[in-house]
Amino acid sequence: MARSGPLAPMIGPDGVGGGTAVRSPKTAELVAGTLRRMVVDGQLKDGDFLPNEAELMAHFGVSRPTLREAVRVLESERLVEVRRGSRTGARVRVPGPEIVARPAGLLLELSGATIADLMTAQSGIEPMAARLLAESGTTDVFDELDRMLDEHLPTDWRSDRLAETTADFHLRMVQLSGNATLAIISGMLHEITVRHTAFVFKEGRPVSKADYDKLMRSYRRLMQLLRSGDGAAAEAHWRKHLDVARGLMLEGLEDVKVRDVMG
């Protein structure tokens, strides 16, 4: 029977495109999809072990090779961890932003992105996160950030951990904002940000005590605004903070590529 209708010109007698059949998902892919959905829906939580092979084979009505192929699919997605030789089987490992950080860094390198590109993107992410945090944050959340300033950041401005710890504060602030999308993007950029800051210091621009004191005053001012609930003021302050930092850290390095920092 001849096909009719608007799709007829695109569909030949043997399938889509006049000869390319629509591929049905493999059984292993369907099993992997069901298990993946169970993780997403919270039926399987981080740290849970999958049921043993016999139970899964019976439940899905599949062979052992098919089941193992499904588990390998999930392992490649870093949704499960399989310890070879272990009797406990596959364990659920819910990934964080690091799962996309490395491939994203590679894409930035391949695209010729500069550190200026990266810092401009951060200027779009973090101020909005500051607004959201001011408007919806709790006392416990603000206390956690204050503890980071008191205990995590080094008190010596010459510390080689300053780049790492300040980046941790920025990332945690975004994570606590309650917006999962902003948190994932910020987490993706986190490693590159740390390396960039360390790169700047290595280029002969150590932080002076005056710069360190100014940095800490800016962080404390942010905390005051967050606790006040003034989202607009928190957003404006953090945007200015990032603009000033970008100007200082990019001076003379405007065209440095991400690949030069990632090494």
UniProtKB/TrEMBL annotation:
Record domain HTH gntR-type: where: 25-95
Any Pfam family hit: FCD
PROSITE patterns: HTH_GNTR (PS50949)
Region (Disordered): 1-22
Keyword Transcription regulation appears in the UniProt entry: yes
Record keywords: DNA-binding, Transcription, Transcription regulation
InterPro entries: GntR_C, TF_FadR/GntR_C, Tscrpt_reg_HTH_GntR, WH-like_DNA-bd_sf, WH_DNA-bd_sf
Keyword DNA-binding: yes
GO molecular function, one term: DNA binding
Protein name according to UniProt: GntR family transcriptional regulator
